[in-house]
Specification:
mainly beta; Outer membrane phospholipase (ompla), Chain C; twelve-stranded antiparallel beta barrel; 1 helix; 66% strand; globular
């Protein structure tokens, strides 16, 4: 745990001395915008591969094949300065279903995540559209409900995650494209488990025609170092979310989508994937304070 706090302290003291950082908050040409990127209700079908092979998987990777309704919220507060961008974001998703077969009722979750992040990126290299620069990100991930582990006890995901790396921001097609070193403090179980990983991530948008755009985001995270052994800790995890937004009126849109997650835990012999296909009705807007 100590090395995680040391990394945060080093980041806090080093960033102000990077080129451009010292003057980022002195610029008069700044803006503050609240972005509701997406609030949506989704009807989807969920399927999990290799579900009967291993028990060493947490949360939504244990859900059964179900049809259900889920909810998504994605928003941020963006402070844009001449030499830096500061983002504070909140992402939430939840989906749960109930099915009865032969008198036995089964409840399953296909999505359960709350992610609160703060992200600071320097505009070190300006492009024709967007910029490239170093960034630091601190996030806290948890969930709405608890899950039952193999020991029969209930737990709730609680992860403090720090990242630092290089990012392309607001490019022509890639709204974000980054590579980062990751340090996690996992408080889910008794005793903090420190983990070190590498991560690649992206956000992509492409307008097919007026009122229709393809939107995709995702990441690949590979873990290298652990403080403790838990058989449900991921060795790697990857996720991609893809949808086709069709504008209806104003900020309201209709979108078919397909989301895919894949992971392998330290205690499992095979990977497990979770595929979600469905339709969503969403709304997006923004408000500029100045």
């Amino acid at each position: 745990m100590l090395k995680f706090y040391k990394a945060l302290l080093v980041s806090a003291f080093v960033w102000p001395f990077l080129p451009g950082a010292a003057h980022a908050f002195d610029d008069g040409a700044s803006s503050l915008t609240a972005n509701l990127k997406r609030i949506a209700v989704q009807y989807n079908q969920n399927s999990v591969s290799n579900r009967g092979e291993d028990a060493e998987y947490p949360g939504t990777f244990t859900s059964d094949e179900q049809e259900l309704v889920s909810f998504v919220f994605d928003g941020n507060l963006e402070y844009n300065m001449q030499k830096a961008v500061w983002l504070n974001s909140l992402f939430m998703e939840y989906g749960k279903s109930k099915s009865t077969e032969n008198g036995v009722t089964t409840k399953s979750e296909t999505a359960d995540k709350i992610l609160l992040t703060t992200d600071y990126t320097l505009k070190m290299w300006e492009l024709d559209q967007g910029f490239v620069g170093p960034f630091a990100n601190l996030g806290y991930q948890t969930e709405f409900t608890t899950f039952e582990d193999e020991d029969g006890k209930k737990y709730r995901t609680k992860i403090l995650r720090g990242k630092t790396g290089l990012k392309l921001y607001e490019g022509e097609l890639f709204k974000e494209l980054y590579i980062a070193a990751v340090e996690e403090a996992d408080f889910t179980y008794s005793g903090t488990n420190m983990k070190t990983a590498g991560e690649l991530g992206y956000q992509f948008e492409y307008g097919l025609r007026e009122g229709v755009k393809f939107v995709s985001n995702g990441y690949l995270r590979k873990f290298f170092v652990y403080d403790k052994y838990r058989n449900t800790d991921f060795k790697y995890e990857a996720e991609t979310n893809n949808r086709l937004d069709v504008a209806i009126i104003g900020g309201l849109s209709f979108a078919p989508f397909i989301n895919y997650k894949i992971a392998k835990t330290r205690g499992a012999s095979k990977f497990r994937s979770n595929k979600i296909i469905g339709l969503s009705l969403g709304y997006e807007t923004d408000y500029k304070f100045w």
